[in-house]
Amino acid sequence: MRILVVEDEKGLADAVSALLRREGYSVETANDGKTGLEKALSGRFDCMILDIMLPGMNGLDVLTYLRVKEIEIPVLLLTAKSEVDDKIKGLDCGADDYLTKPFVTGELLARVRAMTRRLGMAQDINPRYGDITLDLKKGELSCGANSIVLGRKEFQMMEMLISNSGKNTTKEDFVSRIWGSDDDSAYNNVEVYISFLRKKLQMLHSNVQIKTRRGIGYCLEGA
Ligand code: CA
């Protein structure tokens, strides 16, 4: 599950991202409305947390634009306490739910879970590539009758590789969405986890391989 967080208060954006990552979501952030809109239009996200008061383009304008373009991504709006009218406007503009700031973390997670569940989100559709399937509920990678449990980070990386299938996933993509920081250790971790995933693909006797494109990234082959 990939979540886009659009919030200009960096402390809050970082805290929300860290919280969601701990729960196993892949997260990307945008700190202004325009960047948020561009990312949402890319279609790479399953769900969006959108602040209303944003520099450049406010959250309600972002939401209106998405709905005009018939982008049906589920949106949880964040509103400040004083913006009661904005809640109503937000729901009119096509938000799925809203949360008033300040909120407790449990409440945010509950809203995200409720929103994705209510909308019958892709949790039931297991991503496939070639002879492999990723079981989202069990956290397993399977090939024919064989299956193996993946660690959380391995799982998130495999999910990204499959959803980008045919295209490259860069180290930066992995680091920004899974680790959320760009220190060197996170970059080294990518290589380590890729090697774990390669071993697991071999153990499953899969035809799928993770190819390294030097200086570009990683991509699946063998479909
Ligand atoms: Ca704000």
Secondary structure layout:
Elements (H helix, E strand, L loop, with lengths): L1 E5 L3 H13 L3 E5 L2 H9 L5 E5 L7 H10 L6 E6 L3 H10 L3 E5 L3 H14 L9 E2 L2 E4 L4 E4 L2 E4 L2 H12 L7 H9 L4 H20 L5 E5 L3 E5 L2
Parallel strand pairs: 1-2, 1-3, 3-4, 4-5
Antiparallel strand pairs: 6-7, 7-8, 8-9, 10-11
Helix pairs in contact: 2-3, 3-4, 6-8
Calcium ion binds next to loops.
In brief:
This protein is of the alpha/beta class and 223 residues long.
Q: Tell me the major beta sheet.
A: 5 strands, parallel
How many structural domains?
Answer: 2
Tally of individual helices: 8
Class derived from helix and strand content: alpha/beta
Output the CATH topology of the largest domain. Answer: Rossmann fold
Your description of this structure?
By secondary structure, this protein is an alpha/beta fold. The protein has 2 domains: 117 residues, Response regulator (Rossmann fold), CATH 3.40.50; 94 residues, Arc Repressor Mutant, subunit A (Orthogonal Bundle). Helix content is 43%, strand content 22%. The strands form 3 sheets. A 5-stranded parallel sheet has the order 2-1-3-4-5, sandwiched between helices. A 4-stranded antiparallel sheet has the order 6-7-8-9, covered by helices on one side. Strands 10-11 form a two-stranded antiparallel sheet. Strand 3, helix 3 and strand 4 form a beta-alpha-beta unit. The longest helix is centred in the last third of the chain and has 20 residues. It is elongated, with a radius of gyration of 18 Å. The site of calcium ion (CA) has 5 residues, from loops.
